[in-house]
User: Which sequence fits this backbone?
């Protein structure tokens, strides 16, 4: 049997009782470690499960999927995923491969940032399409996510922006060599995301924009963990906010708020803190 | 301390390890039982926790909030919520009241239908605004959710439709009496939801509609439980589909699909089953 188990967002105890029972009985347990990270590290998980984990980086999950599934027909193999297993398409792909091979599988759901983001008090039903904000490079600066945010705003909806993470990315120079070298991991902060958005506003200044530097934003860090932080201010102010370690998410708030949303958000105001 | 604990969607073991530890140590534990239901019943939960639960219906949560919070300053009190605690605004309201009273609180997240719906293989980032489809009465037949679905479709997005549930609704006749009488609980099925959508299509037939009876839909039942069922067919066909017991959800699929979405959805085709 092949198990895909969601770990939630915070610490080792955010796994479900069902998920933990499966982890305990499995022959092999992989930890997917490149689409997202838990606020705690892998060592803490190993200690809590009292067993070794195999760290699954992008190469292993995307090219080595057959190794992961190899003997899942006879043995019990689990892949642990931060958040919910269906948060990344690569996991859907794994299930399809298991099906092709006639391997039975089970999914154990858990919270993901898509619903945990409700902790800021905004109603989950008032969010539009979720967008991802990628790290810009000198030569690659896409801005299509800005139009989606603007479109949500026009439709009276909030936008959850998932911020890029780079884990075990090969350096450009090493791509041509036999021995890969990797860049240090990096995780986009709300301030970095806000700066890229401000740059887009600046680039588009000749157009008539629906949102600008005064649009209300919410910065969230380490949602679901004990050190969770939430702050609300405008986009310009957000570019100077420091919420500490990863992971961060950014919300661009819609133009109209429900009175309960207003009341709840007040506690997170930058001016108050 | 006041705890709001998500239970996930399926059976008692879908609670997190953290959540279970809190349930075990609390002085009083309420089970919120009107915005959603678990596939298993309250008795099964009590057996698993080895403790009594206080069933919290709408009256208790909305009018009796002070009773729930009464001594949460000194004692440990938990409210268990199906899915994630922030799925319903009434829970956000409870936290605000706790804050007003200076009562400390902690939220334990869990999966909700908003991310578990990924089990059908559609990418969660390709969903637009979530809508709720309410039970129509003879005199009250709102259809604003149809416009939201059509708007999502126009923006190349899928729509998750949450289907109405009626639990402990007083009968119209008893509203004027001292002694309340309640209607039997009812839970909207995918077929009932599809029929209401077809009716709206029929009513609007003079208009140029973006979606009609041929639009592709996905019906989901008891997501996250062992008896989970998923079926995909067009809206007309969905009005005849029977997915068994509650809870059901309906997805109206956007106009374009990613190849991986197409491949994953094939297994759920009505024609195949």
Assistant:
């Amino acid at each position: 049997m092949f198990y895909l188990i969601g770990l939630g967002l915070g610490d080792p105890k955010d796994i479900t009782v069902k998920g933990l029972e499966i982890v305990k009985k499995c022959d092999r347990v992989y930890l997917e470690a490149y689409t997202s990270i838990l606020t705690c590290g892998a060592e803490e998980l190993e200690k809590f499960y009292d067993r070794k984990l195999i760290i699954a980086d992008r190469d292993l999950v995307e090219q080595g999927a057959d190794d992961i599934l190899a003997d899942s027909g006879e043995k019990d193999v689990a892949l642990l995923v931060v958040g919910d297993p269906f948060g990344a398409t690569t996991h859907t792909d794994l299930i399809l491969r298991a099906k092709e091979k006639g391997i039975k599988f089970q999914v154990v759901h858990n919270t993901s940032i898509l619903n945990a983001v409700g902790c800021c008090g905004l109603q989950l039903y008032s969010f539009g399409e979720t967008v991802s904000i990628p790290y810009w490079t000198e030569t690659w600066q896409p801005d299509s996510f800005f139009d989606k945010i603007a479109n949500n705003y026009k439709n009276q909806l909030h936008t959850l922006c998932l911020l890029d993470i780079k884990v075990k990315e090969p350096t450009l120079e090493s791509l041509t060599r036999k021995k890969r070298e990797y860049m240090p991991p990096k995780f986009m902060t709300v301030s970095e995301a806000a700066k890229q958005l401000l740059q887009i506003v600046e680039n588009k200044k000749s157009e008539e924009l629906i949102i600008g530097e005064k649009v209300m934003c919410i910065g969230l860090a380490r949602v679901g963990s004990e050190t969770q932080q939430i702050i609300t201010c405008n986009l310009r102010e957000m570019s100077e906010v420091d919420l500490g370690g990863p992971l961060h998410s950014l919300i661009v708030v819609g133009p109209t708020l429900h009175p309960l949303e207003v009341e709840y958000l007040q506690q997170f105001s930058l001016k108050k803190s």
Notes: Residues 2-111 of chain B form a domain with the Cobalt-precorrin-4 Transmethylase; domain 1 fold (CATH 3.40.1010.10). The first strand of chain B starts at residue 2 and ends at 6. Chain B has two domains: 2-111, 114-268.
